[in-house]
Amino acid sequence: MDKIDPARRSANMAKVRGKNTGPELKVRRVAHGMGLRFRLHRKDLPGRPDLVFPRHRLVVFVHGCFWHRHEGCRRATMPATRTDFWQAKFDATVSRDARQIAALEASGWRVLTLWECDLKDDEIAARLREVTA
Ligand SMILES: [Zn+2]
Q1: What spacing in Å lies between the alpha carbon of 18 and ligand 1's midpoint?
Q2: Whole-structure pTM value
Q3: pLDDT for 14
Q4: Among 69, 73, 109, 113, which one has the highest count of C-beta atoms within 10 angstroms of its own C-beta?
């Protein structure tokens, strides 16, 4: 019998997976295949971006749709219980993301956000080509 509700399970899994999530590895693999040089999770940058491309002054976030509230995405569901709790949590995440992006852009970084629901290899490559050309 599994008594953990889906949202809680998703939270637990996110915690366990930590930073090396599948979607992020996928983006790394594509970037690597394009011959781009990047670093990971630079702690000195706001939000510890998942990938940092110093030569292109570009940072990339690979966001989970549930936690980061991908707008209009069917994965950005609202848990049926403790709605206020979740709403507050989501609001905090979304405004933190916005603050971090603003801080990065203010220091001259370009910011690309990729969503886990939209990570086809050729799509990732196209987005990266746009910003590193
Ligand atoms: Zn999404």
Answers
A1: 19
A2: 0.82
A3: 54
A4: 109
CATH 3.40.960.10, domain 21-132, yes or no: yes
Give the H/E segment covering residue 52: strand 51-53
Pairing of strands 110-115, 39-40: unpaired
Nearest to 47 by CA among 91, 93, 100, 95: 100
**CB distance 86 to 131 below 8 Å:** no
**Residue boundaries of the structural domains of the chain:** 21-132
Place of tokens 């809680």: 8
Q: How far is ligand 1, taken at its centre, from the CA of residue 71, in Å?
A: 7
As to burial, measured by CB atoms within 10 angstroms (0-12 exposed, 13-18 middle, 19+ buried), residue 89 is: middle
pLDDT band at 20 (very low <50, low <70, confident <90, very high): low
